[in-house]
Amino acid sequence: MTTMLEVAKRAGVSKATVSRVLSGKGYVSQETKDRVFQAIEESGYRPNLLARNLATRRTQTLGLVVTNTLYHGVYFSELLFHAARMTEEKGRQLILADGKHSASEEREAIQYLLDMRCDAIIIYPRFLSIDEMDEIIEKHDQPIMVLNRRLRKNSSHCVWSDHKASCEAAVLQLIEMGHRDIAFITGSLDSPTGLERLSGYKEALAKHDIPLREALIAEGKWHPASGAAAVSTLLSRGESFTALVSSNDDMAIGAMKQLHDSGLAIPGDVSVIGFDDVSIAPYTVPSLSSVRIPVTEMIKETISRLIFMLDGGEFQFQQRFPGELILRDSALRVTKK
């Protein structure tokens, strides 16, 4: 195995100079750097990453904690793709830790990344409370950012979208289009995002004095099969509805399939709106109307803040990203009969 001393001899420099080139600390002329890198390439030398990390106190890694209930969906694949791509653009490696099924397991995943000496950590929480995340941020030296939740104390350490306001706006749009009988498929009711979207649905109805009918609300579990099952539940109750809002696109796609199988036309009989605007939404038949949550922009802001914090910077403001309703063929204005 090639050693640093052998690289130094091949490049005609001291071992200390090779060390400075690899660590990026101290002045070394470009000509000397070129000779060292050429010697490294010719000799096949592999730096001892552990030793270098201990010396620089940096691992060039970012950690991401996500519960595994999100792994199977289109939304998570897009989230992970953008997180990995943007981490790569910053010259770092992304390490994923599974938050599993409880707040204690999310804590264990965060601690795992801390023990791995990740330079900074992103938490996409499901079970940890706001107070618990504020406590974690204040307890540790490594920069920690929370994605998709609004913090109370450490507001500059979170990037979030107002799911309640976005869902309210989508329902208000349906009301403006003439719909009054609007059904709703919730996400998992232990999900903060799901609860916020349900709250937005109720708020929109209240603003127009439309009575809340519990029979028009069915619980989903974020995946397409649960969307189909929710439609079956709604239809079995004998309640009529001309529009349906689903808490995510996966369930909306399952709901559309079940509506079709039940002999209901979309949007002629039932208009459908989903959430997240996943990449396949424009390609369903009919194309799915959806509330776009700017995941790409949110992740970009999150990673940029972490890098800024690692360089000694501080933020003093909170960042909120609004959702945007993208109307496509699945939603239609009510026509008078």
Kindly describe this structure.
It is a single chain. The protein has 337 residues and is α/β, with parallel strands linked by helices. It folds into three domains: 4-56, lambda repressor-like DNA-binding domains (434 Repressor (Amino-terminal Domain), Orthogonal Bundle), CATH 1.10.260; 61-161 and 294-321, Response regulator (Rossmann fold), CATH 3.40.50.2300; 163-293, Response regulator (Rossmann fold, 3-Layer(aba) Sandwich). The protein has helices spanning 4-11, 15-23, 30-43, 49-56, 74-89, 103-115, 130-139, 163-176, 192-207, 224-236, 249-261, 295-310; strands at residues 61-66, 93-98, 120-124, 144-147, 158-160, 182-186, 217-219, 243-246, 271-275, 289-292, 319-320, 324-326. The protein has a six-stranded parallel β-sheet, sandwiched between helices. The longest helix is centred in the first third of the chain and has 16 residues, at 74-89. The radius of gyration is 25 Å and the shape is elongated. The model has no long low-confidence stretch (mean pLDDT 88).
CATH-assigned homologous superfamily of the largest domain: Response regulator
Shape: elongated
- Which architecture of the largest domain does the CATH hierarchy give at level 2? 3-Layer(aba) Sandwich
Give the C-level CATH assignment of the largest domain: Alpha Beta
Distance between the termini: 82 Å
Average pLDDT over all residues: 88
> What is the helix tally?
12
Question: Based on helices, strands and strand pairing, what is the structural class?
Answer: alpha/beta
Helix content: 40-55%
Tell me about the largest β-sheet. Answer: 6 strands, parallel
User: Count the strands?
Assistant: 12
Tell me the series of helices and strands, N- to C-terminal: HHHHEHEHEHEEHEHEHEHEEHEE
Hey, roughly how much beta strand do the residues contain? 5-15%
Number of domain modules: 3
